[in-house]
């Protein structure tokens, strides 16, 4: 059997990793991972490193259409995807495809990013399961697969202080971060960890905003910016007393640690 975990972006991996770990535990062979060739080199390098950590074979190419052809020719038995973008181009005639959405949140795409090429859709709740069944999709209630990592991963316990710790996780709406930056200096009674959306590291128009943030906080000892390598926000849950976000799926994930959540206004 050959199994592919298809990634449009690196941040799809936390949803897939618990499944990869379980397959490894069962000594399943033939596990592959692949990442779109359209992403920046920074992202590709970290993805390769993570595939090596997990013991997963990497499928790559020189450019994106070539990568998709290679995957289709490999005729995978199972293909896990985080959205529908590449599925039509990589799914072979006998492939069985499984959708595990890369982040729930409150975004419309959660309800539109579906295609009949998906043989099975994993969902987090019986309500969502019933909705998809009514729409004609084959679905199964699995919960949020990403949260299985809470039992196994190493957590961030550094910089522990007596100050309450706030985890701020804005989504990819630029104004959510831009309008928050001026308030950071005023919040010295808190330790603030900022976990930026992936795009603030990989997309030029977002990088400019991140650099503005870095310039403001470089002399603030109460504000910490999570590095790009911390693409999985779960590692910061135990050290955080409060989550602030807008439309992120983290709003739902943080419920598992039973701590307060503030949903900020979407600007």
UniProtKB/TrEMBL annotation:
GO terms for molecular function: CDP-glycerol glycerophosphotransferase activity. Gene3D superfamilies: 3.40.50.12580. InterPro entries: Glycerophosphate_synth, TagF_C. Pfam families: Glyphos_transf. GO terms for cellular component: membrane. This is CDP-glycerol glycerophosphotransferase.
